[in-house]
Amino acid sequence: MKVTVSEAQENASTTRASAHVLRVGYPGRLGGYSRECAAKMYASNATLSAYAGIDEVVNALVRGEVEAAVVPWSRGHQRPVTATHEALACWPGIRVERRLFRAISLSLLGPPDLCPSKVQRIVAREALFEECSEWLEHNLPGVARIECLHMADALDMAEGRHDTLAIAPPSLARRPGLVCLAERIEDDPGRVAQFAVLKRDTSSVRGQGYLDDAPSTSPDCVAGESDPG
């Protein structure tokens, strides 16, 4: 069959388009909710890049270093993530492509041989301490709480010491040196966080999606338009 020049050019363009790998940025290091959302949404069709914070990843989007950014939008009960909304106010050329709803579950992770009486500290991001403050007061009232910037930092400390626990999603207990010591420690078990996919263009919300929480045995995906981490 004879192929015309225009058809050959169209086929070549289609091949190039299908081979394109999207560059996606997210705030925080491996182990954070934003990274999990980006990985689940784009699977193997994107190159994921970590940035120090929300401002940094939005600036990377503005400069063209990435073509999309996945950032936290709001926490439970419609509490907006201030840094995300302030970044969007500074850059009107950035739009919300879609918003993702993710059920949040928190666990206490630590070394498998850690005795409760030996626990000296719990490490987590400030927001996660707020999410399970009642549980901690009831179960570990005398243990020091150490705040860190990224969830991965808390996991590193818990894995590297024999007297330290970390608060994180149960899926992150996959690390060789960590096990889940207590599940569902959040004070609001029904909390759903929102994450936004940002792209460059006019402002509009194009769609919405839903993401399961980590443990496949617990159907935490919440349907409906309601109000990370």
TrEMBL record:
Q: Where is this region: Disordered?
A: 206-229
Presence of the UniProt keyword Lyase in the record? yes
Q: Which residues form the Prephenate dehydratase domain?
A: 23-200
Q: Which UniProt keywords apply?
A: Amino-acid biosynthesis, Aromatic amino acid biosynthesis, Lyase, Phenylalanine biosynthesis
Leading EC class: lyase
Do you know which SUPFAM superfamilies this protein is assigned to? Periplasmic binding protein-like II (SSF53850)
PROSITE patterns per the UniProt record, alphabetical: PREPHENATE_DEHYDR_3
Q: Which domain of life is it from?
A: Bacteria
Task: Give the matching InterPro entries.
Answer: Preph_deHydtase
What this protein catalyses is: prephenate + H(+) = 3-phenylpyruvate + CO2 + H2O
Q: In which pathway does it act?
A: Amino-acid biosynthesis; L-phenylalanine biosynthesis; phenylpyruvate from prephenate: step 1/1
Any idea of its EC number?
A: 4.2.1.51
Protein name from the UniProt record: prephenate dehydratase
